[in-house]
Amino acid sequence: MSDYRERAARIDRAVLWTRTVAAHPEPVTVFPDGCMDLIWTEGSLLVAGPDSRAFLAPAARASAFVGIRFAPGTAPALLGVPAVELLNQRVDLGDLVPARTARLLVDSIDNAPDRVAALEGVATRFAAANTRADPVITAVADSLAAGATVAETATQAGLSARMLHRRSLAAFGYGPKMLARILRFQRALAAVRAGIPAAETAAVTGFADQSHLSREFRDLAGCSVRALQPG
Question: What is the pLDDT of residue 1?
Answer without folding.
Answer: 59
